[in-house]
């Protein structure tokens, strides 16, 4: 698993710490075919700062090539307006699948997708396997 290497302010305690010490905020993994998995911790309030950190890490992992991004957002508490604006900017992800489980996850995703123009194909799923199939689909 690839871990973020920058400092983050913990949404739980407010302390600034290395992200590896606060894995509950976000974590990354990369599949052999390049698919990037971003998992947000349960109860996380995704701020603009966290969104910028996540997107910078996706760009760092991708380097010069683009790969699909699977975002596990199950149990995310909130997506701030500033975070929605950050996620509306172009990054190196070629497609983005948002995966959640609850009605709240769906509301957060639909609100974000409805009020923010996303620069790449982006969909919400309740099934991770279905999301992975869609992400790996050619074209």
Keywords:
single chain, 139 residues, alpha/beta, Transcription Regulator spoIIAA, 5-stranded mixed β-sheet, two-stranded antiparallel sheet, 9 strands, disordered N terminus, DUF7793, DUF7793 domain-containing protein
Concise overview:
Residues 31-137 form the DUF7793 domain. Helix content is 32%, strand content 27%.
What does this protein look like?
It is a single chain. The chain has 139 residues and is an alpha/beta fold. The protein has one domain (24-136): STAS domain (Transcription Regulator spoIIAA, 2-Layer Sandwich), CATH 3.30.750. Helices cover 32% and strands 27% of the residues. The protein has helices spanning 48-62, 81-87, 103-115, 128-136, and strands at residues 7-9, 16-18, 26-30, 36-40, 45-46, 67-72, 78-79, 93-99, 122-125. The chain has a five-stranded mixed sheet, sandwiched between helices. Strands 1-2 form a two-stranded antiparallel sheet. Strands 5-7 form a two-stranded parallel sheet. Helix 1 (48-62) runs parallel beside helix 2. InterPro entries: DUF7793.
């Amino acid at each position: 698993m690839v871990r973020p290497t920058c400092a983050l302010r913990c949404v739980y305690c407010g302390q600034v710490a290395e992200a590896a010490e606060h894995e509950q905020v976000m974590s990354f993994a990369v599949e052999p075919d390049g698919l990037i998995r971003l998992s947000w911790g349960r109860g996380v309030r995704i701020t603009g700062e966290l969104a910028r950190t996540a997107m910078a890490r996706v760009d760092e992992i991708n380097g010069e090539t683009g790969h699909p991004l699977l975002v596990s957002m199950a149990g995310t508490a909130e997506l701030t307006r500033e975070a929605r604006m950050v996620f509306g900017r172009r990054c190196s992800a070629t497609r983005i699948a948002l995966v959640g489980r609850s009605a709240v996850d769906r509301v957060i995703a639909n609100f974000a997708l409805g009020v923010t123009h996303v620069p790449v194909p982006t969909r919400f799923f309740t099934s991770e396997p279905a999301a992975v199939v869609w992400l790996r689909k050619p074209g």
